[in-house]
Design brief:
By secondary structure, this protein is mainly α. The protein contains 13 helices and five strands. A hairpin with a 3-residue loop joins strand 1 and strand 2. Helix 4 crosses helix 11, helix 5 runs antiparallel to helix 11 and helix 10 packs across helix 12.
Length: 288
């Protein structure tokens, strides 16, 4: 991309972020624990994104090629496509089988409210940094199609640094680890892959994703000082214990009806090589 093209791109500024699946002040979208002004400003603690043609940018380019190669793995590519849908439903579908309990508004209202409100808080922390740097996304830089082409138009004018999807995924991994610490490793592994999905899909550079994880960690630390958050977390933890009858470990993973994805008995996504007892379509199966 020429310098002129980059300049033109940089002038196309979107005043509002695109991550609005949680934001709002109603029961559908949740009630954020902080306003954008009350949240730490990522511009003040993140380094600027790598300059084009720098050694740090060369690392980003290498990771972009890695992401392209990952698309050859059908299962990993499918995960990246699912992760591209920003919002509550994706978080529930991808993380709850590992958590060990399917969260719904009707059956687990305290957990559902917690996820909604934390998700709404995630929406705006990255906006100021995105607007300041307006970093060109990799699919624009290379003029190549992403794994999710239907989302390209809305992302062209939205800055790449840091990754808002990663802020959401890593925050939710930290949150659910506090709800069921027994499977924290698996939840954090899935949260990590949620961020890597953005590289694989072609929407973010690796440094965008790394910055998103840092922002999520700062956000989650900030939440610890919020009384409403602490109260809701305590209610959600108790609800989880009640629903799982006090068990701290997953005994049977609850999988959404109709899914063809398989999970191990501890909630880790199974691959074609996984042997032993797995959960698929809500049923236990033995894979010899």
């Amino acid at each position: 991309m020429s310098k002129i093209s980059r300049f033109i791109f940089a002038t196309i500024v979107v005043l509002c972020g695109t991550m609005t699946a949680f934001a709002g002040q109603d029961e559908v979208n949740g009630h954020a624990y902080f306003t954008q002004e009350e949240l730490p400003n990522m511009v003040n603690f993140l380094p600027p994104p790598p300059e084009f043609e720098s050694s740090r940018f060369a690392a980003d380019q290498t990771q972009y090629l890695w992401g392209i190669r990952q698309r050859q793995d059908e299962e990993r590519a499918a995960m990246a496509i699912r992760d591209a849908v920003y919002g509550m439903q994706t978080i529930i579908q991808e993380f709850c089988p590992i958590l060990g309990l399917m969260i719904t508004k009707e059956d687990t209202p305290e957990l559902y409210t917690l996820l909604q409100d934390v998700g709404a808080t995630c929406d705006s922390i990255s906006n100021r940094a995105k607007e300041k740097y307006m970093r060109t996304r990799p699919f624009v830089y290379y003029n190549q199609q992403t794994l999710v082409p239907e989302q390209e138009e809305e992302h062209i004018t939205n800055g790449s640094y840091p990754s808002g999807h990663t802020v959401l995924g890593w925050t939710m991994a930290l949150l659910m680890s506090d709800i069921n610490p027994a499977v924290a490793d698996a939840l954090l592994a899935r949260g990590y892959e949620y961020g890597q999905s953005r590289v694989i899909a072609g929407y973010h550079w690796q440094s965008d994703v790394d910055a998103g994880r840092l922002g999520a960690s700062v956000l989650y630390a900030k939440l610890q000082g919020n009384e409403r958050f602490r109260d809701q977390l305590a209610k959600a933890q108790q609800e989880f214990r009640d629903k799982t009858q006090g068990s701290s470990r997953v005994k049977e993973v609850i999988v959404p009806v109709g899914t063809s994805r398989a999970y191990t008995i501890t909630g880790v996504p199974a691959t074609s090589e996984t042997r032993g007892i797995i959960i698929q379509d809500g049923k236990k199966m033995l894979r010899p």
